[in-house]
Design goal:
Structural class: mainly alpha
Strand content: under 5%
Order of helices and strands: HHHH
Number of domains: 1
Distance between the termini: 41 Å
Amino acid sequence: MTDDCVHERQVAAVCASLEPYQWRNLTPQMLARYVLGVLDHQRVLDLVDGVPGADAGDPGPVKPVERGDVRVEVLVDFLVRHRWRTLTLPALIRHLINELCRWSRRRHWVDVELARLLDER
């Protein structure tokens, strides 16, 4: 399944970061936290790259996001419902990014609807 949320640059960044490790041995929670950490890291680099004359320098190693990050549960839910260890790494990352995108769209829709309902009061 292809989604307009998946950018191959993101997939490549996560794959490059995870390929040296035995990622199939990670727990669903640790994998989710790490994938989100790489995506956040890449987002910051992309933002800095978009500023003329800005240089990110060496951003250091990628760190997993905190356990309490609400997005972790979204990815863990996907992972526990699927046989993710049978997928290739690029396929898995595309699925996870799609899952994040769907969740983000639903969350945005709920926020918009809630704001509309509150405005009607």
